[in-house]
Amino acid sequence: MAGVYISYPFCRQKCTFCNFASGVFSAEARRRYEQALLNEVRGYRWDWQPETLYFGGGTPSLMPFELLRDLLGAVPREQLRETTLECAPGTVTAEAAEFWTACGINRVSLGVQSFVTTELRATGRHHDAEIVDQEIGILRNAGIENINIDLIAGLPGQTNDSWRCSLDWIERLAPPHVSVYIFEVDEDSRLGEEILRGGARYGAGAVPSEDLTAEFYETAVDRLAALGIVRYEISNFARDGFESRHNLKYWRLEPYIGFGVDAHSFDGGHRWSNPDTLAAYFERPGGMRSAAEHGQERFFVGLRMMRGIEPTRDEWSRFAQPIEKWLHAGMLERDDTRLRLSRHGVLVSNEIFQDFIDA
């Protein structure tokens, strides 16, 4: 069954590494958005039952209780198996956690990014490891055991020692799911833009090299595996049974509907997305549809999963050149009828995916 994504793009501060359509806005803009979002969800024609619901952002844990309750009331919930709320450390209280549980939230994704205070302060974050520890305790006391922790490899000032410190905290807190993202240098974040222009603000000069960042990632793969938290997708690791049901829909090309700013949707044949600014969203909540190219998508989306994909006979023929190229280079592995990224191939996955897009 399909999934639902709801975007709440408001934050207390805009982190230097963030390239999402989110930020700090006026109280008036927030109130206007909340009403527009609720109208969009209520106005949708539900002729199907969603299996997953994901509140992303932004910082959905800042969402007023009344709005969260109203949004949940506007979505059919009879078949929901997983309802996720993204949270920023420092926003989890006992009152909030109890309310979330009562509303049906059964999974929380914590945007920790690092457990090292100096790294956090360089990015504009105000929490520390102790706050995360306390808030995970609050969530568990409220009955939310399905917790994800986000980490970012490649933050300014990050070293092998500091990275191991963050992984030590993962071992101590024992979440069932961890996401490890490699910092992307692009113009959509303040830090990325500063690096591209050769500046020194936001710690741009202290960003680890690509090779060192790759080493951080590889260290995480091994360390998490030793803890029973196994990589099932390039950036996602979980104990058996705790994989993100909602995110798996993206990688398996299953349908999902998105509401709010910059929310994306896919019905199995077409993709569309909402406007990525508040002003444009207020004028036109809906998005433009485009046909999906399933052959290409099966490769650059499906190969993100460690189990890989099982190409059809036509796909083996159509993509024979990039398949043979990367098999020969040792970046792809073939096991009978299945194709998957090798351990080294994961680190150059974007380059591999591009070949399938261009084929």
How would you describe what is shown here?
- The protein has 359 residues and is of the alpha/beta class.
- The chain has two domains: 3-251, TIM Barrel; 293-359, Arc Repressor Mutant, subunit A (Orthogonal Bundle), CATH 1.10.10.
- The protein is 40% helix and 19% strand.
- The chain is built from 15 helices and 14 strands.
- It has helices at 27-42, 65-73, 94-103, 117-123, 129-141, 160-173, 190-196, 210-226, 245-251, 278-283, 294-302, 313-318, 320-328, 343-346, 349-358; strands at 3-8, 52-57, 82-87, 107-113, 146-153, 177-182, 230-233, 236-238, 256-259, 264-266, 270-273, 290-291, 332-335, 338-341.
- A nine-stranded mixed β-sheet has the order 7-8-6-5-4-3-2-1-9, with helices on both faces.
- α3 links the parallel β3 and β4.
- It is globular, with a radius of gyration of 20 Å.
What do we call the CATH homologous superfamily of the largest domain? Answer: Aldolase class I
- What fraction, in percent, of the residue positions are helical? 40-55%
The number of helical segments is 15
Major beta sheet, strand line-up: 7-8-6-5-4-3-2-1-9
What structural class do helix, strand and pairing data support? Answer: alpha/beta
Quantity of strands, as a count: 14
Strand content: 15-25%
User: What is the alpha-carbon Rg in Å?
Assistant: 20 Å
The name CATH uses for the topology of the largest domain is: TIM Barrel
Mean pLDDT level: 92
Would you identify the CATH architecture of the largest domain?
A: Alpha-Beta Barrel
Just give the CATH class of the largest domain: Alpha Beta
Q: Major sheet: size, sense and barrel closure?
A: 9 strands, mixed
Report how far the terminal alpha carbons are from each other.
31 Å
Which spans of ≥5 residues are poorly predicted at pLDDT below 50? none
How many structural domains can be distinguished in the coordinates? 2
**What order do the helices and strands follow?**
EHEHEHEHHEHEHHEEHEEEHEHHHEEHH
| Gross geometry | globular
